[in-house]
Amino acid sequence: MKYVLEIDNVSKFFHGLVAIDDLTIKVKPGQIYGIIGPNGAGKTTLFNCVTGIYTPEQGTIKYKGEDITGMQPHKIAQKGVLRTFQNIRLFSDMSVAENIMAGYHTKSKQKWYHAIFHTPAYKKDEKAAWKKVEELMEFFNLTHLATNPTGDLSYGNQRKVEMARALAANPELLILDEPAAGLNENETIELTEIIRKISQMDIGIMMIEHDMEMVMSLTDYITVINFGKEISQGEPNFVQNDPRVIEAYIGSDDDEEDE
Ligand SMILES: Nc1ncnc2c1ncn2[C@@H]1O[C@H](COP(=O)(O)OP(=O)(O)OP(=O)(O)O)[C@@H](O)[C@H]1O
Ligand SMILES: [Mg+2]
């Protein structure tokens, strides 16, 4: 399999507004693909098209070669496309372990009657589920918080729980919408390492991020979007020095660099 995700000539309109304009993006297994661009550029809308929240008006989206354009979000998740959200979405009254467990059940093949009658298949799956949750808590350094409600956690830990929940469903494509937003420097460094390790498991990662230091050090390839359109595509070094990118950022409020 050459690409885990193929976005071909995708466009999305909202009442005449062009939110996504003819984007083509291909993500390989194990690749970390960055999507950057000023506020309102269409980045989250693109992710919403890939995860089935929106159906694009034009173009096709393929996951592992299969056309998933317009498929329902839960179907796409079951196939192995999992995401986190720009505004964290967790069950805040539920514990860390329970939230991650919910992710496991995205893909679980259990039928309702297995749970009611506690069949051997159910018991076996529950055991496998707990093992997975324990492994993930270890991986994200969350074990000591296993029984805490996620609503009481720091922002950084909440972001990790959300990512762990996505991984519990065994994704082959992980979609992260601003994973470092609201994190302090140490939390950002920890998260960068975690994302790198996830990609080494051959999981394709597509991430939106405004933290340019993180993007430039972490991603293998980048598409820069402005007003829904691709303005540059290439390796971090290339897009960083692309005059079209510099111009787009200087013309917006996003740029916090003083050069
Ligand atoms: N459901 C919707 N209905 C109408 N317009 C929408 C909808 N969702 C997004 N838009 C518009 O589409 C454009 C792109 O929004 P989007 O959220 O994708 O930007 P973004 O690049 O993720 O920005 P940010 O960096 O601020 O998160 C914006 O003009 C936004 O107002
Ligand atoms: Mg967004």
UniProtKB/TrEMBL annotation:
GO terms for molecular function: ATP binding; ATP hydrolysis activity; L-isoleucine transmembrane transporter activity; L-phenylalanine transmembrane transporter activity; L-valine transmembrane transporter activity. InterPro entries: AAA+_ATPase (IPR003593), ABC_AA/LPS_Transport (IPR051120), ABC_transporter-like_ATP-bd (IPR003439), ABC_transporter-like_CS (IPR017871), BCA_ABC_TP_C (IPR032823), P-loop_NTPase (IPR027417). SUPFAM superfamilies: P-loop containing nucleoside triphosphate hydrolases (SSF52540). One of its GO terms (biological process) is D-alanine transmembrane transport. Residues 5-252 form the ABC transporter domain. Coiled coil: none annotated. It holds the Pfam family ABC_tran. CDD domains: ABC_Mj1267_LivG_branched. One of its GO terms (cellular component) is plasma membrane. It comes from the Bacteria. Keywords: ATP-binding, Nucleotide-binding, Transport. This is ABC transporter ATP-binding protein. The gene is livG1.
